[in-house]
């Protein structure tokens, strides 16, 4: 957990580690709120992610890189700072790194964990440093695709047409 950062202002959402939806909040370490009370907002329950990402002050998106979060961040042109953990997250991160849309936070070589220093360096690189401008530019370029609802509907309609044609072909090959 990144407790304190010298990276401008870092909004942080803390979710339970058990991925359970039964609990509305998580327990924070002793003294956490007191140490961070004047440094921004700590939200310990589910948040309106898209509403937060839509705010003009967002400069990057620290994300686990699940597909839904990836799409939401790219719709709004935010370069992801990626912390992949499971399933598709690593693949999503590799594609975005290859396209120079965001960066993956380096892991500790010994145990594979993320350190607060590597997270802070990665956020600083994307959000503050001039070297991070390429990520913002490329994310903004993808926002023209991910944020285009007309294009999305067109793709969905093409997919449905394709599936309907394939379905008819399969049915005719089966003799039905």
List keywords for this structure.
176 residues; mainly alpha; Rossmann fold; three-stranded parallel beta sheet; two-stranded parallel ribbon; 7 helices; elongated
Q: Would you give an account of this structure?
A:
The chain is built from 7 helices and 5 strands, in the order βαβαβαβαβααα. The chain has 176 residues and is mainly α. The chain has a domain at 48-147: Rossmann fold, CATH 3.40.50. The chain has a 3-stranded parallel β-sheet, with helices on both faces. The protein is elongated, with a radius of gyration of 20 Å.
Q: In short, what is this structure?
A:
The protein is built from 7 helices and 5 strands, in the order E-H-E-H-E-H-E-H-E-H-H-H. It has 176 residues and is mainly alpha-helical.
> What is the CATH domain class of one domain?
Alpha Beta
Q: Helix count, per DSSP?
A: 7
What would you say the CATH architecture of one domain is?
Answer: 3-Layer(aba) Sandwich
CATH homologous superfamily annotation of one domain: Glycogen Phosphorylase B
Q: Kindly state the mean pLDDT as a whole number?
A: 82
Rounded to an integer in angstroms, the radius of gyration calculated over CA atoms is 20 Å
Instruction: State the major sheet.
Output: 3 strands, parallel
How helix-rich are the residues, as a percent range? 40-55%
The CATH topology of one domain is given as Rossmann fold
* Strand composition percent: 5-15%
Strand order of the largest sheet: 3-4-5
Distance between the termini: 58 Å
List the helices and strands in order: EHEHEHEHEHHH
